[in-house]
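Teaching assistant here, posting this on the class forum so everyone can see the example we discussed in section. The complex has two components, and the goal was to see what a joint structure prediction looks like when all of them are supplied at once.
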Amino acid sequence: MTTTATKPSGSTPIFQQKRQMPFPLNIYQSAIGRKWVMALTGIGLLGFVLVHMIGNLHIYEGPAKMHEYAESLRTLGGGLVPKTFVLWLFRLGLIGMFILHIHSAYTLKERSRKASDKADFVGGNKKYESKRDYVAANYASRTMRWTGPIILLYLIFHLADLTWGFVGDGWEAGDPYHNVVNSLSNWFIAIIYIVANIALVIHIFHGTWSLFQSLGINNPKYNKLRRNLATAFAGIVLVGNLTFPILTTIGFINEDNRVCPPGDLECLVTQAEAH
Amino acid sequence: MSNELDLKLKIWRQEGPAVDGKFETYDANGISEDMSFLEMLDVVNDNLITTGEVPIEFDHDCREGICGTCSLMINGQAHGHEKATTTCQLHMRKFNDGETITVEPFRARAFPVVKDLVVDRSAFDRIIEAGGYISVNTGAASDANLTPVPKEASDTSFDAAACIGCGACVAACPNSAAQLFTSAKLGHLNLIPQGQAQRFARTENMVETMESFFGSCTNHGECHEACPKEISLDFIAFMNRDYVKAKVKNRKLAGQK
Protein backbone atom coordinates (compact mmCIF):
# COMPACT_ATOMS: atom_id res chain seq x y z
CA MET A 1 0.00 0.00 0.00
CA THR A 2 1.19 3.48 -0.77
CA THR A 3 -1.09 5.26 1.68
CA THR A 4 1.10 7.31 3.97
CA ALA A 5 0.62 6.79 7.66
CA THR A 6 -1.17 9.82 9.09
CA LYS A 7 -1.90 10.65 12.68
CA PRO A 8 -5.49 9.60 13.26
CA SER A 9 -7.56 12.75 13.15
CA GLY A 10 -10.03 11.34 15.65
CA SER A 11 -7.72 12.41 18.44
CA THR A 12 -7.73 16.10 17.55
CA PRO A 13 -10.64 18.15 18.89
CA ILE A 14 -13.05 19.69 16.38
CA PHE A 15 -13.98 22.61 18.63
CA GLN A 16 -11.32 24.57 20.44
CA GLN A 17 -12.05 24.95 24.12
CA LYS A 18 -12.12 28.67 24.81
CA ARG A 19 -10.82 30.31 27.96
CA GLN A 20 -13.41 30.05 30.70
CA MET A 21 -15.34 33.24 31.29
CA PRO A 22 -16.22 34.24 34.84
CA PHE A 23 -19.18 32.56 36.53
CA PRO A 24 -22.04 32.39 35.55
CA LEU A 25 -21.11 33.17 31.93
CA ASN A 26 -18.97 30.01 31.75
CA ILE A 27 -22.18 27.96 32.00
CA TYR A 28 -23.38 29.50 28.74
CA GLN A 29 -20.05 28.63 27.10
CA SER A 30 -20.80 24.93 27.26
CA ALA A 31 -23.38 23.11 25.17
CA ILE A 32 -25.01 21.55 28.22
CA GLY A 33 -25.20 24.98 29.85
CA ARG A 34 -26.83 26.32 26.71
CA LYS A 35 -29.39 23.53 26.87
CA TRP A 36 -30.13 24.68 30.43
CA VAL A 37 -30.65 28.20 29.16
CA MET A 38 -32.89 26.86 26.39
CA ALA A 39 -34.90 24.89 28.92
CA LEU A 40 -35.25 27.75 31.41
CA THR A 41 -36.18 30.33 28.76
CA GLY A 42 -38.48 27.66 27.32
CA ILE A 43 -40.30 27.43 30.64
CA GLY A 44 -40.73 31.21 30.64
CA LEU A 45 -42.02 31.23 27.09
CA LEU A 46 -44.35 28.29 27.77
CA GLY A 47 -45.74 30.27 30.68
CA PHE A 48 -46.33 33.19 28.37
CA VAL A 49 -48.04 31.01 25.75
CA LEU A 50 -50.41 29.56 28.35
CA VAL A 51 -51.23 32.88 30.02
CA HIS A 52 -51.70 34.54 26.63
CA MET A 53 -54.13 31.82 25.57
CA ILE A 54 -56.09 32.00 28.84
CA GLY A 55 -56.19 35.82 28.73
CA ASN A 56 -57.51 35.74 25.19
CA LEU A 57 -60.52 33.75 26.35
CA HIS A 58 -61.85 37.15 27.48
CA ILE A 59 -62.87 37.57 23.84
CA TYR A 60 -65.88 35.37 24.61
CA GLU A 61 -67.08 38.05 27.04
CA GLY A 62 -67.46 40.64 24.31
CA PRO A 63 -65.70 43.84 23.20
CA ALA A 64 -66.03 45.74 26.50
CA LYS A 65 -64.53 43.00 28.69
CA MET A 66 -61.79 42.38 26.14
CA HIS A 67 -60.85 46.04 26.30
CA GLU A 68 -60.93 45.93 30.09
CA TYR A 69 -58.55 42.92 30.05
CA ALA A 70 -56.16 44.68 27.66
CA GLU A 71 -56.27 47.80 29.81
CA SER A 72 -55.63 45.84 33.00
CA LEU A 73 -52.42 44.47 31.43
CA ARG A 74 -51.28 48.06 30.87
CA THR A 75 -52.12 49.05 34.44
CA LEU A 76 -50.47 46.03 36.09
CA GLY A 77 -48.90 47.13 39.37
CA GLY A 78 -51.74 49.57 39.97
CA GLY A 79 -50.87 53.05 41.10
CA LEU A 80 -47.46 52.00 42.46
CA VAL A 81 -45.70 52.25 39.12
CA PRO A 82 -46.19 54.32 35.98
CA LYS A 83 -48.72 52.92 33.49
CA THR A 84 -47.34 50.08 31.27
CA PHE A 85 -44.19 49.86 33.46
CA VAL A 86 -44.82 46.29 34.64
CA LEU A 87 -46.07 45.36 31.17
CA TRP A 88 -42.79 46.57 29.71
CA LEU A 89 -40.82 44.60 32.29
CA PHE A 90 -42.65 41.49 31.09
CA ARG A 91 -42.11 42.43 27.47
CA LEU A 92 -38.38 43.01 27.96
CA GLY A 93 -38.13 39.75 29.87
CA LEU A 94 -39.88 37.90 27.04
CA ILE A 95 -37.69 39.55 24.40
CA GLY A 96 -34.59 38.61 26.41
CA MET A 97 -35.75 35.01 26.80
CA PHE A 98 -36.62 34.82 23.12
CA ILE A 99 -33.18 36.06 22.07
CA LEU A 100 -31.37 33.66 24.43
CA HIS A 101 -33.59 30.75 23.31
CA ILE A 102 -32.93 31.41 19.63
CA HIS A 103 -29.24 32.16 20.07
CA SER A 104 -28.57 28.97 22.02
CA ALA A 105 -30.66 26.91 19.59
CA TYR A 106 -28.85 28.30 16.56
CA THR A 107 -25.34 27.94 17.97
CA LEU A 108 -26.04 24.39 19.17
CA LYS A 109 -27.43 23.47 15.76
CA GLU A 110 -24.25 24.81 14.16
CA ARG A 111 -22.17 22.79 16.60
CA SER A 112 -24.03 19.62 15.68
CA ARG A 113 -23.71 20.43 11.99
CA LYS A 114 -19.96 20.77 12.34
CA ALA A 115 -19.74 17.58 14.38
CA SER A 116 -21.51 15.73 11.56
CA ASP A 117 -19.60 17.46 8.80
CA LYS A 118 -18.12 14.46 7.05
CA ALA A 119 -21.46 12.71 7.31
CA ASP A 120 -23.31 14.93 4.80
CA PHE A 121 -25.46 17.09 7.00
CA VAL A 122 -28.65 17.47 4.98
CA GLY A 123 -31.68 19.51 5.95
CA GLY A 124 -30.71 19.68 9.57
CA ASN A 125 -29.92 16.00 9.92
CA LYS A 126 -26.95 13.92 9.01
CA LYS A 127 -27.45 11.52 6.21
CA TYR A 128 -26.65 7.89 5.66
CA GLU A 129 -26.81 6.18 2.30
CA SER A 130 -29.51 3.83 3.44
CA LYS A 131 -32.58 5.73 4.44
CA ARG A 132 -32.29 6.47 8.17
CA ASP A 133 -35.05 4.72 9.95
CA TYR A 134 -35.84 6.81 13.01
CA VAL A 135 -36.78 4.62 15.92
CA ALA A 136 -37.32 6.99 18.81
CA ALA A 137 -37.16 10.48 17.35
CA ASN A 138 -40.70 11.66 16.73
CA TYR A 139 -41.98 14.17 14.21
CA ALA A 140 -41.91 16.96 16.79
CA SER A 141 -38.31 16.42 17.86
CA ARG A 142 -37.07 16.19 14.27
CA THR A 143 -38.84 19.36 13.16
CA MET A 144 -37.81 21.64 16.05
CA ARG A 145 -35.45 23.44 13.65
CA TRP A 146 -38.32 24.16 11.27
CA THR A 147 -41.16 24.86 13.69
CA GLY A 148 -38.89 27.29 15.59
CA PRO A 149 -38.32 29.68 12.65
CA ILE A 150 -42.01 29.34 11.66
CA ILE A 151 -42.99 30.54 15.15
CA LEU A 152 -40.56 33.48 14.89
CA LEU A 153 -41.98 34.57 11.52
CA TYR A 154 -45.51 34.12 12.82
CA LEU A 155 -44.69 36.17 15.92
CA ILE A 156 -43.53 39.09 13.76
CA PHE A 157 -46.66 38.77 11.61
CA HIS A 158 -48.88 38.51 14.68
CA LEU A 159 -47.39 41.69 16.21
CA ALA A 160 -47.68 43.55 12.90
CA ASP A 161 -51.26 42.37 12.54
CA LEU A 162 -52.75 42.96 15.99
CA THR A 163 -50.28 45.10 17.98
CA TRP A 164 -49.02 47.53 15.37
CA GLY A 165 -51.87 47.38 12.86
CA PHE A 166 -49.64 47.18 9.81
CA VAL A 167 -51.67 44.45 8.09
CA GLY A 168 -54.82 45.52 6.26
CA ASP A 169 -57.21 48.36 7.07
CA GLY A 170 -59.50 49.03 10.00
CA TRP A 171 -57.09 48.52 12.90
CA GLU A 172 -58.13 50.55 15.96
CA ALA A 173 -55.75 51.22 18.86
CA GLY A 174 -57.01 49.83 22.17
CA ASP A 175 -59.90 47.80 20.74
CA PRO A 176 -58.54 44.23 20.53
CA TYR A 177 -61.98 42.63 20.00
CA HIS A 178 -62.55 44.66 16.87
CA ASN A 179 -59.00 44.06 15.62
CA VAL A 180 -59.28 40.30 16.08
CA VAL A 181 -62.62 40.10 14.25
CA ASN A 182 -61.40 42.50 11.58
CA SER A 183 -58.28 40.45 10.93
CA LEU A 184 -59.42 36.86 11.46
CA SER A 185 -62.67 37.12 9.51
CA ASN A 186 -60.34 37.07 6.51
CA TRP A 187 -60.00 33.31 5.92
CA PHE A 188 -56.51 33.69 4.46
CA ILE A 189 -55.21 35.32 7.66
CA ALA A 190 -57.11 32.78 9.73
CA ILE A 191 -55.27 29.97 7.93
CA ILE A 192 -51.93 31.61 8.74
CA TYR A 193 -52.95 31.63 12.42
CA ILE A 194 -54.12 28.02 12.34
CA VAL A 195 -50.98 26.71 10.62
CA ALA A 196 -48.67 28.73 12.87
CA ASN A 197 -50.43 27.55 16.01
CA ILE A 198 -50.12 23.94 14.93
CA ALA A 199 -46.37 24.54 14.43
CA LEU A 200 -46.23 26.16 17.87
CA VAL A 201 -47.91 23.19 19.49
CA ILE A 202 -45.62 20.68 17.73
CA HIS A 203 -42.66 22.72 18.99
CA ILE A 204 -43.85 22.83 22.58
CA PHE A 205 -44.83 19.15 22.56
CA HIS A 206 -41.17 18.20 22.25
CA GLY A 207 -39.93 21.19 24.26
CA THR A 208 -42.07 20.49 27.30
CA TRP A 209 -40.72 16.96 27.56
CA SER A 210 -37.19 17.78 26.52
CA LEU A 211 -36.69 20.56 29.07
CA PHE A 212 -36.89 18.04 31.92
CA GLN A 213 -34.02 16.04 30.41
CA SER A 214 -31.98 19.18 29.78
CA LEU A 215 -32.44 20.36 33.36
CA GLY A 216 -31.69 16.89 34.69
CA ILE A 217 -35.13 16.53 36.28
CA ASN A 218 -35.38 12.78 36.14
CA ASN A 219 -36.88 10.45 38.66
CA PRO A 220 -38.44 7.07 37.86
CA LYS A 221 -41.33 8.00 40.18
CA TYR A 222 -42.58 10.68 37.82
CA ASN A 223 -40.72 10.17 34.51
CA LYS A 224 -43.91 8.96 32.80
CA LEU A 225 -45.70 12.13 33.87
CA ARG A 226 -43.27 14.28 31.89
CA ARG A 227 -44.60 12.98 28.56
CA ASN A 228 -48.16 13.22 29.81
CA LEU A 229 -47.60 16.80 30.89
CA ALA A 230 -46.20 17.66 27.45
CA THR A 231 -49.22 16.09 25.74
CA ALA A 232 -51.69 17.81 28.05
CA PHE A 233 -49.99 21.19 27.78
CA ALA A 234 -49.75 21.02 23.99
CA GLY A 235 -53.36 19.86 23.77
CA ILE A 236 -54.70 22.68 25.95
CA VAL A 237 -52.76 25.32 24.02
CA LEU A 238 -53.84 23.80 20.70
CA VAL A 239 -57.54 23.73 21.51
CA GLY A 240 -57.55 27.14 23.18
CA ASN A 241 -55.60 28.94 20.48
CA LEU A 242 -57.38 27.34 17.53
CA THR A 243 -60.83 28.39 18.75
CA PHE A 244 -60.03 32.05 18.00
CA PRO A 245 -59.29 31.86 14.25
CA ILE A 246 -61.80 29.07 13.60
CA LEU A 247 -64.72 30.61 15.49
CA THR A 248 -64.04 34.02 13.98
CA THR A 249 -63.88 32.74 10.41
CA ILE A 250 -67.13 30.82 10.77
CA GLY A 251 -68.73 33.91 12.30
CA PHE A 252 -69.26 32.76 15.88
CA ILE A 253 -67.08 35.59 17.16
CA ASN A 254 -68.56 38.62 15.39
CA GLU A 255 -69.43 42.29 15.79
CA ASP A 256 -73.13 42.02 14.88
CA ASN A 257 -74.43 42.88 18.36
CA ARG A 258 -71.80 45.44 19.12
CA VAL A 259 -72.99 48.54 21.01
CA CYS A 260 -69.91 50.78 20.83
CA PRO A 261 -68.44 51.80 17.47
CA PRO A 262 -64.96 50.31 16.86
CA GLY A 263 -62.22 52.31 18.58
CA ASP A 264 -64.58 54.25 20.90
CA LEU A 265 -62.69 53.46 24.11
CA GLU A 266 -64.76 55.64 26.44
CA CYS A 267 -67.91 53.84 25.39
CA LEU A 268 -66.18 50.46 25.99
CA VAL A 269 -65.15 51.52 29.50
CA THR A 270 -68.66 52.63 30.46
CA GLN A 271 -70.11 49.43 29.04
CA ALA A 272 -67.65 47.24 30.97
CA GLU A 273 -68.49 49.05 34.19
CA ALA A 274 -72.20 48.63 33.56
CA HIS A 275 -71.69 44.85 33.33
CA MET B 1 -30.70 -28.26 8.67
CA SER B 2 -30.27 -24.57 8.44
CA ASN B 3 -31.48 -22.56 5.52
CA GLU B 4 -29.17 -20.69 3.24
CA LEU B 5 -29.51 -17.12 2.10
CA ASP B 6 -28.43 -15.37 -1.08
CA LEU B 7 -27.77 -11.71 -0.37
CA LYS B 8 -26.59 -8.60 -2.13
CA LEU B 9 -24.30 -6.35 -0.12
CA LYS B 10 -23.79 -2.67 -0.75
CA ILE B 11 -20.63 -1.90 1.16
CA TRP B 12 -18.70 1.32 1.73
CA ARG B 13 -15.12 1.00 0.40
CA GLN B 14 -12.58 3.67 1.26
CA GLU B 15 -8.83 3.19 0.90
CA GLY B 16 -7.75 5.59 3.60
CA PRO B 17 -8.68 8.61 5.70
CA ALA B 18 -7.78 11.15 3.03
CA VAL B 19 -9.32 9.31 0.05
CA ASP B 20 -12.91 9.56 -1.10
CA GLY B 21 -14.90 6.39 -0.62
CA LYS B 22 -17.73 4.83 -2.58
CA PHE B 23 -20.23 2.00 -2.39
CA GLU B 24 -19.44 -1.34 -4.02
CA THR B 25 -21.90 -4.16 -4.52
CA TYR B 26 -20.99 -7.73 -3.65
CA ASP B 27 -22.87 -11.01 -3.83
CA ALA B 28 -22.98 -13.18 -0.76
CA ASN B 29 -24.45 -16.50 -1.78
CA GLY B 30 -25.06 -19.60 0.28
CA ILE B 31 -24.90 -17.79 3.62
CA SER B 32 -26.05 -19.97 6.50
CA GLU B 33 -28.73 -18.33 8.57
CA ASP B 34 -26.87 -19.42 11.71
CA MET B 35 -23.94 -17.16 10.88
CA SER B 36 -23.39 -13.87 12.59
CA PHE B 37 -23.16 -10.75 10.47
CA LEU B 38 -19.39 -10.72 10.90
CA GLU B 39 -19.06 -14.38 9.88
CA MET B 40 -21.01 -13.51 6.76
CA LEU B 41 -18.47 -10.76 6.05
CA ASP B 42 -15.68 -13.30 6.66
CA VAL B 43 -17.18 -15.49 3.92
CA VAL B 44 -17.37 -12.52 1.55
CA ASN B 45 -13.74 -11.66 2.35
CA ASP B 46 -12.63 -15.26 1.72
CA ASN B 47 -14.16 -15.03 -1.73
CA LEU B 48 -12.52 -11.66 -2.35
CA ILE B 49 -9.11 -13.02 -1.36
CA THR B 50 -9.54 -16.06 -3.62
CA THR B 51 -10.31 -13.83 -6.56
CA GLY B 52 -7.31 -11.62 -5.75
CA GLU B 53 -9.25 -8.60 -4.53
CA VAL B 54 -8.60 -6.52 -1.42
CA PRO B 55 -10.75 -7.81 1.45
CA ILE B 56 -13.19 -5.52 3.26
CA GLU B 57 -11.76 -4.06 6.46
CA PHE B 58 -14.05 -4.11 9.48
CA ASP B 59 -13.51 -3.90 13.23
CA HIS B 60 -14.12 -6.97 15.37
CA ASP B 61 -12.66 -8.62 18.42
CA CYS B 62 -14.49 -10.67 21.04
CA ARG B 63 -17.47 -11.58 18.84
CA GLU B 64 -19.64 -12.09 21.90
CA GLY B 65 -20.99 -8.60 22.43
CA ILE B 66 -18.82 -7.39 25.27
CA CYS B 67 -15.79 -5.65 23.77
CA GLY B 68 -17.40 -2.84 21.80
CA THR B 69 -15.05 -3.21 18.84
CA CYS B 70 -17.50 -4.10 16.10
CA SER B 71 -19.47 -1.26 14.60
CA LEU B 72 -21.28 -1.03 11.23
CA MET B 73 -24.34 0.89 10.17
CA ILE B 74 -26.53 -1.87 8.74
CA ASN B 75 -29.47 -0.67 6.65
CA GLY B 76 -29.28 2.71 8.35
CA GLN B 77 -29.24 1.38 11.90
CA ALA B 78 -26.25 1.04 14.18
CA HIS B 79 -25.53 -2.68 14.77
CA GLY B 80 -28.56 -3.48 12.60
CA HIS B 81 -32.25 -3.40 13.36
CA GLU B 82 -32.27 -5.87 16.25
CA LYS B 83 -32.60 -4.29 19.66
CA ALA B 84 -29.84 -4.71 22.22
CA THR B 85 -27.43 -6.56 19.94
CA THR B 86 -23.99 -5.77 18.63
CA THR B 87 -23.12 -6.54 15.02
CA CYS B 88 -21.33 -9.73 16.07
CA GLN B 89 -24.50 -10.92 17.84
CA LEU B 90 -26.71 -10.17 14.84
CA HIS B 91 -27.69 -13.41 13.14
CA MET B 92 -28.25 -13.75 9.42
CA ARG B 93 -31.61 -15.40 10.11
CA LYS B 94 -32.85 -11.88 10.86
CA PHE B 95 -32.49 -11.08 7.14
CA ASN B 96 -34.53 -12.29 4.18
CA ASP B 97 -33.31 -14.30 1.22
CA GLY B 98 -32.52 -12.05 -1.73
CA GLU B 99 -32.32 -8.91 0.42
CA THR B 100 -29.93 -6.06 -0.37
CA ILE B 101 -28.09 -4.98 2.75
CA THR B 102 -26.37 -1.59 2.92
CA VAL B 103 -23.33 -1.53 5.19
CA GLU B 104 -21.69 1.77 6.13
CA PRO B 105 -19.20 2.87 8.74
CA PHE B 106 -20.37 4.79 11.82
CA ARG B 107 -20.40 8.41 10.77
CA ALA B 108 -19.42 11.51 12.73
CA ARG B 109 -16.67 13.99 12.21
CA ALA B 110 -14.96 12.78 15.39
CA PHE B 111 -15.01 9.22 13.95
CA PRO B 112 -12.90 9.53 10.79
CA VAL B 113 -12.82 6.48 8.54
CA VAL B 114 -9.50 4.66 8.78
CA LYS B 115 -10.30 2.20 6.02
CA ASP B 116 -13.54 0.82 4.55
CA LEU B 117 -15.78 0.17 7.56
CA VAL B 118 -13.17 0.87 10.23
CA VAL B 119 -13.49 4.19 12.04
CA ASP B 120 -11.19 5.81 14.56
CA ARG B 121 -13.09 6.11 17.82
CA SER B 122 -10.19 7.46 19.86
CA ALA B 123 -12.19 10.58 20.70
CA PHE B 124 -13.91 8.32 23.27
CA ASP B 125 -10.50 7.59 24.80
CA ARG B 126 -9.91 11.33 25.19
CA ILE B 127 -13.17 11.57 27.15
CA ILE B 128 -12.19 8.66 29.42
CA GLU B 129 -8.74 10.16 29.99
CA ALA B 130 -10.36 13.38 31.14
CA GLY B 131 -11.88 11.70 34.18
CA GLY B 132 -13.35 8.24 33.61
CA TYR B 133 -11.54 6.74 36.63
CA ILE B 134 -11.35 7.03 40.40
CA SER B 135 -8.12 7.75 42.23
CA VAL B 136 -7.42 5.26 45.02
CA ASN B 137 -4.22 3.94 46.51
CA THR B 138 -3.84 0.35 45.55
CA GLY B 139 -2.52 -2.15 48.05
CA ALA B 140 -4.00 -5.11 49.76
CA ALA B 141 -7.59 -5.70 48.74
CA SER B 142 -9.89 -3.85 51.10
CA ASP B 143 -12.59 -5.66 53.02
CA ALA B 144 -15.70 -6.43 51.07
CA ASN B 145 -18.62 -4.18 51.99
CA LEU B 146 -16.29 -1.67 53.62
CA THR B 147 -18.18 1.07 51.80
CA PRO B 148 -21.93 0.63 52.09
CA VAL B 149 -23.60 1.16 48.70
CA PRO B 150 -27.40 1.34 48.45
CA LYS B 151 -28.70 -1.53 46.33
CA GLU B 152 -30.58 0.68 43.87
CA ALA B 153 -27.53 2.88 43.42
CA SER B 154 -25.21 -0.04 42.77
CA ASP B 155 -27.71 -1.54 40.31
CA THR B 156 -27.98 1.74 38.42
CA SER B 157 -24.24 2.15 38.44
CA PHE B 158 -23.92 -1.34 36.95
CA ASP B 159 -26.48 -0.46 34.28
CA ALA B 160 -24.29 2.48 33.28
CA ALA B 161 -21.12 0.41 33.45
CA ALA B 162 -22.61 -1.95 30.87
CA CYS B 163 -21.58 0.58 28.21
CA ILE B 164 -19.00 -1.03 25.93
CA GLY B 165 -18.04 2.23 24.21
CA CYS B 166 -18.88 1.03 20.71
CA GLY B 167 -20.06 4.44 19.46
CA ALA B 168 -23.47 3.34 18.19
CA CYS B 169 -25.03 6.25 20.12
CA VAL B 170 -22.95 8.76 18.17
CA ALA B 171 -23.61 6.97 14.90
CA ALA B 172 -27.38 6.95 15.44
CA CYS B 173 -27.54 10.53 16.71
CA PRO B 174 -28.67 13.05 14.08
CA ASN B 175 -26.45 15.58 15.91
CA SER B 176 -23.42 13.29 16.29
CA ALA B 177 -23.59 13.87 20.03
CA ALA B 178 -21.85 11.56 22.50
CA GLN B 179 -24.10 12.30 25.45
CA LEU B 180 -25.15 8.70 26.06
CA PHE B 181 -21.57 7.38 26.11
CA THR B 182 -20.23 10.16 28.32
CA SER B 183 -23.18 10.06 30.71
CA ALA B 184 -22.84 6.29 31.06
CA LYS B 185 -19.14 6.61 31.87
CA LEU B 186 -19.91 9.40 34.34
CA GLY B 187 -22.91 7.59 35.75
CA HIS B 188 -21.15 4.41 36.77
CA LEU B 189 -18.67 6.38 38.89
CA ASN B 190 -20.81 9.31 40.04
CA LEU B 191 -23.66 7.21 41.38
CA ILE B 192 -21.68 5.28 43.99
CA PRO B 193 -19.79 6.50 47.08
CA GLN B 194 -16.36 5.59 45.69
CA GLY B 195 -16.75 8.16 42.93
CA GLN B 196 -17.91 11.09 45.04
CA ALA B 197 -14.54 12.69 45.76
CA GLN B 198 -13.89 13.54 42.13
CA ARG B 199 -17.52 13.73 41.04
CA PHE B 200 -17.72 17.37 40.01
CA ALA B 201 -14.21 17.73 38.60
CA ARG B 202 -14.81 14.53 36.64
CA THR B 203 -18.12 15.71 35.28
CA GLU B 204 -16.72 19.07 34.25
CA ASN B 205 -13.64 17.61 32.55
CA MET B 206 -15.36 14.78 30.75
CA VAL B 207 -18.24 16.93 29.51
CA GLU B 208 -15.95 19.64 28.24
CA THR B 209 -13.74 17.11 26.47
CA MET B 210 -16.84 15.54 24.95
CA GLU B 211 -18.03 18.92 23.73
CA SER B 212 -14.74 19.55 21.96
CA PHE B 213 -15.40 16.52 19.72
CA PHE B 214 -19.12 15.98 19.44
CA GLY B 215 -22.42 17.70 18.69
CA SER B 216 -25.16 18.79 21.04
CA CYS B 217 -28.01 16.64 22.36
CA THR B 218 -31.58 17.42 21.29
CA ASN B 219 -33.26 14.62 23.28
CA HIS B 220 -34.43 12.56 20.31
CA GLY B 221 -33.68 9.30 22.09
CA GLU B 222 -32.18 7.59 19.01
CA CYS B 223 -29.00 6.74 20.97
CA HIS B 224 -30.87 4.64 23.51
CA GLU B 225 -32.62 2.69 20.75
CA ALA B 226 -29.32 2.02 18.98
CA CYS B 227 -27.42 1.10 22.13
CA PRO B 228 -26.54 -2.62 22.25
CA LYS B 229 -26.50 -2.38 26.04
CA GLU B 230 -29.75 -0.37 26.29
CA ILE B 231 -28.16 2.42 28.34
CA SER B 232 -30.97 4.62 29.64
CA LEU B 233 -31.53 8.27 28.73
CA ASP B 234 -31.79 8.86 32.48
CA PHE B 235 -28.00 9.03 32.64
CA ILE B 236 -28.01 12.00 30.26
CA ALA B 237 -30.32 13.84 32.66
CA PHE B 238 -28.04 12.94 35.60
CA MET B 239 -25.03 14.26 33.66
CA ASN B 240 -26.80 17.52 32.77
CA ARG B 241 -27.70 18.01 36.41
CA ASP B 242 -24.20 17.25 37.66
CA TYR B 243 -22.53 19.49 35.08
CA VAL B 244 -24.35 22.63 36.13
CA LYS B 245 -23.97 21.63 39.78
CA ALA B 246 -20.23 21.35 39.13
CA LYS B 247 -20.22 24.91 37.85
CA VAL B 248 -22.28 26.32 40.71
CA LYS B 249 -21.09 24.35 43.73
CA ASN B 250 -18.59 25.68 46.26
CA ARG B 251 -16.07 22.86 46.14
CA LYS B 252 -14.44 23.93 49.37
CA LEU B 253 -17.46 22.32 50.96
CA ALA B 254 -17.25 19.18 48.84
CA GLY B 255 -16.29 17.10 51.88
CA GLN B 256 -19.63 17.80 53.51
CA LYS B 257 -22.59 15.57 52.85
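For the discussion questions: The CA atoms of residues 33 and 222 of chain A lie 24 Å apart. Chain A has a mean pLDDT of 90. Think about how each of these relates to the inputs above.
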